[in-house]
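About this split. The held-out portion is used to measure sequence recovery: a designer receives only the structure tokens and must propose an amino acid at every position. Recovery is the fraction of positions where the proposal matches the reference. Here is one held-out target exactly as it appears in the evaluation file.
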């Protein structure tokens, strides 16, 4: 076989005695000592048998999907959970999804059970090279899991534990690793909630950076530009909390329209744009301009007797603009 260029370090060392013009005598007791070593070297690429790696990965996924939803009971259907493993190492491996638990903001905990996904060993193929391509393996849950119970407590955190082992026997001299290679487990949760919504409230507190307006005014309008990715409409209310201690509640004129749904998949096609107005008079301006916080509250509803699905990637994006009518003195 060809020399192993990947596991050897070769160097060529040459030395000479500098000419000083003076006669010197050399004998067998004279010597030159040279130390050659590598320091803080990080190879860009290695190839050959790389031994084995046995490790346990403990990770957490934080989510605020449910933290702003005020609802007494959530009954999800067809919760799908999977573990995607991205292997950028040129080494085969084995992965075991050992445990998963959900925790909500009140400390309630539900531990996952699934005989098909949890506690089982799954073979993960190696990445390929020339061209480089990482391998992607998705481990899916079974129909007997209790993942719906995990979602029903409105969790704000998922903790999971994955055991991974790569390399080992039999030895494979074609293993390779780049300095950017990773073995990365990713937890994927799809939560379609097939529900009918009446009076579901979502609220958020927004920091307001406003200053005193140095002119008299006849009042004005605050416009809320809404891009709604949820499949139900909402009535909007804005509450301003003034630094001076007062509050101002403005009810929106118009509503945030529901996003359109694909009749085949039941998923939202795209976010729906709406414009909601909040009118105020001159006496209310000081409360608005001295406020540092504003609470936006959306009360969602679906048409009567209609059920829709909610997925974890749904969102609503809001922005606030103002139009003020100055008071002109003649």
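Reference sequence for scoring:
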């Amino acid at each position: 076989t060809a020399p192993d260029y990947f596991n050897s370090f070769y160097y060529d060392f040459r030395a000479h005695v500098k000419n000083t013009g003076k006669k010197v005598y050399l004998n067998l007791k004279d010597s030159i000592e040279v130390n050659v070593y590598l320091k803080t070297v990080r190879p860009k690429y290695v190839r050959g048998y790389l031994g084995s790696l046995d490790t346990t990965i403990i990770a957490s996924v934080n989510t605020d999907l449910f933290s702003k939803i005020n609802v007494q009971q959530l009954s999800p259907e067809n919760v799908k959970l999977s573990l995607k493993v991205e292997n950028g190492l040129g080494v085969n491996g084995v992965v075991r999804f050992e445990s998963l638990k959900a925790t909500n903001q009140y400390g309630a905990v539900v531990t996952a059970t699934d005989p098909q996904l949890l506690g089982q060993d799954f073979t993960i193929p190696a990445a390929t090279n020339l061209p480089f391509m990482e391998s992607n393996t998705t481990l899916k849950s079974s129909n007997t899991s209790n993942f719906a119970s995990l979602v029903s407590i409105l969790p704000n955190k998922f903790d999971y534990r994955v055991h991974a082992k790569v390399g080992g026997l039999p030895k494979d001299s074609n293993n390779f690793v780049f300095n950017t290679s990773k073995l990365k487990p990713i937890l994927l949760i799809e939560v379609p909630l097939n529900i009918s919504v009446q009076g579901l409230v979502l609220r958020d507190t927004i920091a307001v950076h406003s200053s005193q307006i140095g002119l008299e005014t006849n009042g004005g309008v605050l416009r809320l530009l809404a891009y709604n990715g949820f499949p139900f409409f909402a009535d909007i209310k804005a509450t301003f909390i003034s630094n001076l201690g007062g509050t101002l509640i403005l009810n929106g004129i118009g509503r945030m329209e529901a996003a359109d749904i694909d009749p085949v998949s039941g998923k939202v096609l795209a976010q729906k744009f709406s414009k909601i107005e909040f009118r105020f008079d001159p006496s209310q301006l000081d409360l608005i301009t001295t406020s540092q916080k504003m609470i936006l509250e959306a009360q969602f509803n679906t048409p009567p007797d209609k059920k829709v699905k909610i997925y974890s990637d749904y969102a609503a994006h809001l922005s606030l603009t103002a139009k003020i009518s100055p008071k002109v003195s003649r």
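Annotator remark: The first strand starts at residue 45 and ends at 47.
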